[in-house]
Specification:
It contains two helices and 15 strands. By secondary structure, the protein is mainly beta.
């Protein structure tokens, strides 16, 4: 009788049939072995001639690579930081026409879950877009490409104006807004998107511009408005190759 992960069988068994010492991973169950070894614990153990080989596959797992995303505004820099952690950074914006600086007690996006966290944050930028923002906290979730997302924030303030809009379009925008609590989300399909939000805020903002988010031959025209308690925005493909 041979023991494998606590299961017994009178069938002659060769550990090499299901354990690959070269790659260090468990392969499929051998056809001549019953019952099947239990891999639910992510541990593959073989016992032969008094020796035991154990491979913990969980230890071999690696975090998925950070997704390269634009860092031209504060929200994008949160998404681009692959681990929520203390943060301080400065440099040239990804648009190449401005500079930024920012710091936060915690800032980043968990690459496995898509959850974004920003706590006690302050940042500013100058150039093609001018912005200063500060906040107690933001938490949200986003897709890997950033095109679908939802965010909730508490005690935040933002003043901005320039050519690079929050929806990724280029045109013109202006905003002066203070928020006690608010939530906002964006849903996208191909190049089209819609954004909606509700908040307890004071101030207003708006933007209009053009973009080509899905890099096809159809430019999207985008617009958004934020007034007091609501935010509404959309990007619609025009069918025209404008930019």
């Amino acid at each position: 009788m041979t023991e494998v992960n606590g299961n017994y069988s009178s069938t002659t068994y060769d550990p090499s049939q299901y354990y690959n010492d070269t790659e260090g991973v468990c392969s499929q169950t051998p056809l001549n072995y019953t019952p099947a070894p239990d891999y639910s614990s992510n541990v593959c153990t073989s016992t032969t001639e008094g020796s035991t080989t154990t491979d913990n596959n969980a230890d071999r797992r690696e975090d998925p690579p950070a997704v390269a995303r634009s860092t031209f505004n504060n929200a994008a820099r949160t998404s681009s930081n692959p681990t929520p952690e203390p943060y301080a950074d400065a440099g040239v914006t990804s648009t190449g026409d401005g500079v930024f600086a920012g710091a936060a007690a915690i800032k980043g996006r968990d690459q496995r879950t898509g959850i974004e966290t920003e706590v006690f944050t302050i940042s500013g930028r100058l150039g093609g877009e001018n912005e200063v923002q500060a906040g107690m906290g933001r938490i949200g979730v986003s897709s890997d490409d950033g095109m679908n997302n939802a965010t909730m924030e508490v005690f935040t303030a933002r003043a901005a104006g320039g050519a690079h809009n929050n929806d990724g379009s280029t045109g013109i925008n202006a905003e002066l807004m203070g928020t006690v609590i608010g939530a906002q989300g964006t849903a996208s399909y191909e190049g089209n998107s819609i954004t909606g939000g509700l908040s307890f805020s004071a101030g207003a903002g708006g933007s209009i511009g053009l973009r080509n988010a899905d890099q096809d031959d159809s430019t999207e025209v985008c617009g958004s408005v934020s007034v007091m308690f609501f935010t509404l925005g959309t990007c619609i493909e025009t069918g025209l190759d404008i930019i």
